[in-house]
Here is the input.
Amino acid sequence: MSSESFNWQEFLGRWQEEWVPRADADEDEDGEQTLVRPGRPGADEAAIAAAEERLGRRLPPSYRQFLAVSDGWHVDQTAGVYQLGGAAEIGWFQDPYDMTPLYEENLGDNPREEDVLLAGMWQRALRLETDSDMSYALLDPGDSDQDGEWALYVYKGWSGDCRTVTRRSARTWRPCTATSTPTGWDGPTS
Here is the structure.
């Protein structure tokens, strides 16, 4: 991403135009519907730096840019993740469900690099979502590119299948709209 910067402001503005007002808009005390904005005001550099200090490492450039534009995001029911946390809310996943052994036992004698990365990801990943239906949005600092971008993993825990992890390579990561076809996905999607 060093040669081109993603325009989060434009993307999130377009998302908001397409998805707001939502059917589940809140009602105020007079019974009138109020708009539920999916984004929040952006985090300032001090808030992002405080998150990095708390986490013990620098966040990837594109995620820092996202937080500066919107410090969290309500994604409705897209992909089972309802809310992405802001700078003060994100934290390390730390494998609370012991997923690492499940993935390590299936590595075999000659595992692929991406399988080794996935097995270790559970303990080192940054958890982005703060509300979901057992789905997790995880950034992996152990799977990064030369620009400091981390791979994004989305795990749908409700499926009951350990193979339901979708990996977006750090080298090809770009947000996509609900109507576009994502490119660069490196893993099973069901």
Remarks:
- Residues 8-19 form the longest helix (12 residues).
- Confidence is low (pLDDT under 50) at residues 170-190.
- The two ends are 28 Å apart (CA to CA).
- The first strand starts at residue 26 and ends at 27.
